[in-house]
Amino acid sequence: MKQSAHGVRTLYSLRHTYITWQLMSGEVCMKVLAKQCGTSLQMIEQHYSYVVPKMFTRELSGVKVRKSKPKKATRSPAALAKSHARLTKQFNEWVLEYKKRGCI
C-alpha cells in the first residue's frame, strides 16, 4: 500500500473511499458519518455533495415502488403431483448414479 504510483498511501488515504461508499450505500446518514469520522456535517456536505444526488435518485424519480408480498403460486393438484413425480424420479436417478460412483 505504501508503494503506489500515486505516492505514499496510508490507511488514512482510504478515508475518502470509505465516506463515499457509506454515502452511496444510503445506510448511514451524513450526520452519523460525520460524527463517526470525526469531522463536521458541513465538511461532509462540502466535499461529498456530488454523491448526494445519486443517493436520492429513487426518491426523486417520481416512481413509487411498493414492497408487496409475493403471491402464492396456485397450482392444481394434478400439476403438483406431476412435479412431485418428476422430482422423485430425478432424485432416485441421482442416488443411483452416486452409488455407482461410490459417493454414497
UniProtKB/TrEMBL annotation:
Gene3D superfamilies: Intergrase catalytic core
Domain of life according to the entry: Bacteria
Biological processes annotated in GO: DNA integration; DNA recombination
GO molecular function: DNA binding
InterPro entries: Integrase-like_cat_sf (IPR013762)
Protein name according to UniProt: Tyr recombinase domain-containing protein
Organism this protein belongs to: Shewanella canadensis
